[in-house]
Amino acid sequence: MPPREGVYGLLAEFNTPSELVHATEEAHRAGYRRMECYTPYPVEEAAEALHFHKTRVPLVCLIGGLMGVTTAFLMETWINVWAYPLNIAGRPLFSWPAFIIPAYEWTILFSGFSAALGMIALNGLPQLYHPVFNAPNFRNGATTDKFFLCLEAVDPKFSLSETRAFLEQFPAVSVVEVDH
Amino acid sequence: MATKGPMQDPSVDPVIDPMIDPRTGEYAVIAPGHNFKSVTQKIAGIVLTSNTPLGWFFGLIVAAGVTMGLVVGCTWLFLKGVGIWGVTIPGAWGFAIINFVWWIGIGHAGTLISAILLLFKQTWRNSINRFAEAMTIFAVVCAGTFPLIHVGRPWLAYWLFPYPNTMNVWPQFRSPLAWDVFAVSTYASISIIFWYIGMIPDFGTLRDRATMPAAKYFYGMLSLGWRGSTRHWIRYESASLLLAGLSTPLVLSVHTVISFDFAVAALAGWHTTIFPPYFVAGAVYSGFAMVLTLAIPIRKFYHMEDLVTLRHLDNMAKVMLATGSIVAYGYGMEVFMAWFSASHWEFFMMWNRMFGPMGWAYWILILTNIAIPLTTLWSRKLRVNVTFLFILSLIVNTGMWFERFVIVVTSLYREYLPSSWGTYRATKWDYMIYVGTMGLFTFLFFLFVRFLPMIPMSEIRMMLPQTKVTRGVDAETATEETA
């Protein structure tokens, strides 16, 4: 992919989560859609303001869990019934109650890894480079005590001067241009 | 939950201690006066400082020295075989299984704090969950050592894993030993991933605050490029909750499976249905004791009293009181069932356990695990007495080790046939390896507190009063209040 150039978006910095949520709601009301909030801890109200509700992490986790239980149970059955049958004290070869315990553990193993790695993958991580890191004030605050709203240039409503004027009506500490 | 009830008029009964919330009479979860920046600075400062405290180096070297016991003990074991241990017939299971069950039990409190308390929305867990999870992982490392080295030919321990091999030999899935492999390896994997996922946002903070290039690079790689995007946070929270929901049955199942190692055997003293819940309660009991053993010196050394407050210690002591009572019930039930089952062997086992040649171990267990903790923990004064809690946590850890000792040894050495009775005596190699794992645990912990954020910064931020979001016209006035 060739390096992209130009403006990525406009980044407004706020001191409190309330100001951020308010600005995000207003931006959504004004018709902006391609935007993102950056906060040092999860702010649920910001997600509501962005109208972001559903994640597919639980679905990925469920699929992983089902894969885990099926894999483990079939594997155990195959191993202890066909591949390597052992007659221990005359117990039946298909003694499925004993197989449940490892199958249960693998359900948790697979679904746990699916939830964790699924979350990372859906978030598009690892992604060590991102344009917002170019903003001079972002690294100082975004992971400590500041709240950011980024209106992205790909939004059809985005215009450098108008969007800047829109963001400056809020009590933002600063509004800066973010380059790719 | 308030034990004192609401305070009266402050002018009549002035609250001297600023840590006590005058509305509830409870200790605060975080000391007043903290904000986003101060919390971050405090926690990140420990990791990012270039002035490592001398005490840390001293502790690390001592721990490394003790770990040498494990290295030497294992080397000699691999050269000579398990004959250097005190295990014989009938006492075929000695320190290896005792220490395995003890260590894995210690790990359980970490998962309990990070998972079950998260599901129950107990926000006080936030200050202690990170190092409790670290404790879990290091305890599982120590626990895992024992089954690995006790199998006789440890270089073949991987035969327990189902993998296609040229010999066409497969594991036996009806055996509790194979169940153990699945339970413990799953537990270790899920604990590590849960721990790491929890640290990603904090790695982001450390990356942004680091000044040295090596630290920037190190935490930058670990943070995966985390930038705190709201969409990321929502998925992150969802994954955390799912992992908590999965870890909760996992933590219960792991110790249940371990209790099956015993309960599946047709031996008086082991073959009981009470084992699974009783083992889990004991695990949580010893785990919380270990969290206290670690938390009390660490909060003192790193001046963390305002983040790990007396409220945390008090709550942990309450959990210990509850789980300790379950354990006491378990002991009572064992005795009762030995009598009520009218089984000659059960009855003899219990009598032998109490008054036989190893009766001293049983009474130490009752004293350290039941008598001392369960009489003192009812007192709120003692629950918030740091020195007392520290000593008590050591007592309970000892008691829980003796519980495993009593279960393993006194059930085995005098079984059905008097002609095959024997005894069990641990050798110096047993002790050396056991103490060595304690060194390993401490060593890993020293590395952890120095290089990783020991308190989750992002979760502490969520508990501050500044996080409250007010809507609409109030937003601007709220700004002034919280700024």
From TrEMBL, chain A:
Pfam families associated with the record: ActD
Keywords tagged on the record: Membrane, Transmembrane, Transmembrane helix
This protein's record includes keyword Transmembrane: yes
Species assigned in the record: Tunturiibacter empetritectus
The protein's name: DUF3341 domain-containing protein
Transmembrane residue ranges: 59-79, 99-122
Keyword Membrane carried by entry: yes
Domain of life: Bacteria
Automatic annotation (TrEMBL), chain B:
Domain of life: Bacteria
Transmembrane segments: 56-79, 91-120, 132-156, 176-197, 241-266, 278-298, 319-340, 360-379, 386-413, 433-453
Membrane topology: Multi-pass membrane protein
Stored InterPro entries: NrfD-like (IPR005614)
Entry GO CC: plasma membrane
Family: Belongs to the NrfD family.
Keywords, ordered alphabetically: Cell membrane, Membrane, Transmembrane, Transmembrane helix
Location of the protein in the cell: Cell membrane
Coiled-coil ranges from the UniProt annotation: none
Transmembrane helix among keywords: yes
Name of the protein: Molybdopterin-containing oxidoreductase family membrane subunit
Chief location: membrane
Source organism: Tunturiibacter empetritectus
